[in-house]
Request: fold
Amino acid sequence: MPVSSEPSEGHLMPEEVHLRLILVSGKTQDFTFSPNDSATDIAKHVFDHWPAGWEEERVSSPSILRLIFQGRFLHGNVTLGALKLPPGRTTVMHLVARETLPEPNSHGQRNREKTTESNCCLLL
Reply:
């Protein structure tokens, strides 16, 4: 369950995960969550507590909000605790509106398929 949408004062508590979410527009907002919160929980919390400065980017449903961490989309059931985020620090993630997600290993599958192709050429 999300703890707060405001940054904590004083020291960060170890059972809290601090996220700075960035929109495509570059606007940011800090949120505090529990390590047990999933990507779906975070999307719903952000949707329900949409920051005043983000009104132009508001979406119609929390189901299209997606988190990107270290260049990868987080699927709905992934919890913050599973990501092993560094304690006592604010972690930055991107928040985007997207209807569907690629399959978890689709990028890796494409890379494997490419390695089976022949890369030879004919010189005349």
Summary: Residues 4-11 have pLDDT under 50 and may be disordered. The first strand starts at residue 17 and ends at 22. The radius of gyration is 18 Å. Residues 116 and 122 are 19 Å apart (CA to CA).
